[in-house]
Design brief:
This protein has 9 helices and 7 strands; from the N terminus they run ββαβαβαβαααβαβαα. By secondary structure, it is an alpha/beta fold. Strands 1-3-2-4-5-6-7 form a 7-stranded mixed sheet. Helix 2 (about 65-75) packs across helix 3.
Length: about 250
């Protein structure tokens, strides 16, 4: 598996002038973004983060080393000659933020903007420390209590075996996360959240403003935590506006 395959285009035509590089929620794969990729095409090409241990890379062992994952994502980041917006969904928002920092540290091409959805600001985020080690009879009840998987997965036990390895890997990936002070990013940040999200207070959303020296905007949209399911049109509108600079 080459570094370039850590991001895969979700459209056959990648000649769009603007791209979105998208990182999914815990346990999610690149196909998480297939519906919004179709909605954004052909004006915007979406690239989905392609993690080992799920979907097209299901037979590969998951990677739980955060530094390694960030290095691989940075190496496989979409072509620098296109305008690219970085998008992180749920815990993928934290990875997207850390990836933006990693790109800066490597002297690489920074995203034109960072869009984060359904996750608190990185200095107040508290990923579970030991959940990835829990026995199965405790793991799934805790996941469900946290709202840590979308409803379609939570409601179908047959899916759990498929998703469990990826979920455990992603919770292990962030288990030792500790926020490190660095200069704020020099790019715009947009934080999107569902107005009925029981897990995310407005102060946690507004906290993203502390991590950019550029413009910041918080966008509340009708829906719960899983806004790609409950409000995909609104997420697409935000991504299109940020990526192209033109409201729908």
């Amino acid at each position: 598996m080459t570094d370039a395959e850590w991001f895969v285009p979700l459209a056959a035509d990648t000649t769009a002038d603007v791209h979105v590089a998208a990182i999914p929620h815990a346990g999610g794969g690149c196909a998480t973004f297939a519906p919004i990729a179709d909605m954004l095409a052909p004006q915007v090409t979406v690239w989905g983060a392609n993690f080992p241990g799920r979907q097209a890379r299901f037979l590969e062992p998951p990677c739980t080393d955060l530094d390694v994952v960030l290095d691989r994502l940075a190496a496989g980041y979409p072509p620098a000659h296109r305008r690219t917006v970085l998008f992180g969904y749920c815990s993928g928002a934290l990875l997207a933020f850390l990836l933006a920092r990693r790109l800066r540290a490597r002297g690489g091409s920074l995203p034109a903007a960072l869009v984060v959805a359904s996750y608190p600001a990185p200095d107040v985020a508290r990923p579970p420390r030991t959940l990835h080690k829990a026995e199965p009879d405790r793991f799934w009840p805790e996941i469900l209590a946290l709202g840590g998987v979308p409803t379609p997965v939570a409601g179908q036990p047959d899916f759990r075996e498929i998703f469990e390895a990826g979920l455990r890997a992603d919770y292990a990936l962030l288990a030792d996360y500790v926020f490190a002070e660095e200069p704020p990013l020099q790019i715009p940040v947009v934080a999107v959240h569902g107005d009925a999200d029981p897990m995310l207070g407005r102060d946690c959303v507004d906290g993203w403003s502390r991590h950019t020296a550029g413009p910041f905007r918080a966008v509340a949209t009708p829906g719960d935590h899983w806004i790609l399911d409950t409000a995909p049109d609104r997420v697409v509108d935000v991504l299109r506006e940020v990526a192209t600079g033109t409201p729908r």
